[in-house]
Amino acid sequence: MQSANDMKAHSKTYGSFIGMLKWAVPLIALITLLVVILISD
């Protein structure tokens, strides 16, 4: 069983989360913009 204060694992998990968030937010914004444009036509 690993310690609850495992900073290496925490840093790795947080880094991968932030990395995915950097790509997911703009992608979701583009999809939303596309849907809004399609609806407004």
From TrEMBL:
- The membrane spanning regions, by residue number, are 21-40
Protein's name according to its UniProt entry: Aa3-type cytochrome c oxidase subunit IV
Question: What is the organism field in this record?
Answer: Qipengyuania mesophila
Which InterPro entries does the entry mention?
A: Cyt-C_aa3_sf, Cyt_c_oxidase_su4_bac-aa3
Domain of life of the native organism: Bacteria
- Asked if 4Fe-4S is a keyword of the record, the answer is no
A Pfam family matched in the record: COX4_pro_2
The Cytochrome c oxidase subunit IV bacterial aa3 type domain, residue ranges: 5-37
Q: Which UniProt keywords apply?
A: Membrane, Transmembrane, Transmembrane helix
